[in-house]
Amino acid sequence: MFSFADQIGIMSEVYEIEITTNATDFPVEKKYAAAISLNDLKRKLELIVGTTADSMKIHLFDSDDQPKGELTDGAKSLKELGVRDGYRIHAIDVTGANEDFKDESMVEKYEMSEDAYDKRTDSVRAWKKKMQGEQGGAPMENEGDTANEEAAKGIKLGDRCEVTVGAQIARRGEIAFVGTTKFKDGLWVGVKYDEPVGKNDGSVAGVRYFECDAKYGGFVRPVDVKVGDYPELSIDEI
């Protein structure tokens, strides 16, 4: 228990915390009072995570991004739970409903005709044409495509791997597919995860690319994959 003087100090103390979620690849920086309870924090995170406080799990990482464990006592303050300035909180929507919005094959996209796109003066294509003219017609490579092509050269079927997309927690599995797909241009890597953290069973939009159980399959870009000696994690390491 904190003394009255300690409680007064906590009430005036503010932490700057990085918030990451399984609903988005983009972290956000937020400031919260050290005295705020975990339950109140969860309610404040509802708009960020896109789910209710009751459907949320909170994992804590220190300033070196080392895991400190799951926060479960909703009545305790952030300070009592060991949260400190500069720490990271990873909020997980346990329903998994928001994962579908990160799967590009599940999102209806606006498509512009080639003619209409060519007429735009504020597009990437228009900028490339301008740059090519200034460089005497020299072609410009798509840096993202080139990076993925290079990364894919070191990935082969059956390799053990670790996948890290944006600020998400790293996930381990086995390479089950490398190549192009019908759901999106470019190179993709199909991963059969060790845990049910994926979005599919190796098929997307009715096309099968590899075999695995439901929620154990996922597709990521080659640059987000590291192959090597990544053994399956034991339960106490997850």
Automatic annotation (TrEMBL):
SUPFAM superfamilies: Cap-Gly domain, Ubiquitin-like. Its main location: cytoplasm. GO terms for biological process: cytoplasmic microtubule organization; post-chaperonin tubulin folding pathway; tubulin complex assembly. One of its GO terms (molecular function) is microtubule plus-end binding. Residues 179-221 form the CAP-Gly domain. SMART domains: CAP_GLY. It comes from Caenorhabditis japonica. This is CAP-Gly domain-containing protein. GO terms for cellular component: cytosol; microtubule plus-end; nucleus. InterPro entries: CAP-Gly_dom_sf, CAP-Gly_domain, TBCB_Ubl, Ubiquitin-like_dom, Ubiquitin-like_domsf. Keywords: Chaperone, Cytoplasm. It is found in: Cytoplasm. Coiled coil: none annotated. Gene3D superfamilies: CAP Gly-rich-like domain, Phosphatidylinositol 3-kinase Catalytic Subunit, Chain A, domain 1. Belongs to the TBCB family. It comes from the Eukaryota.
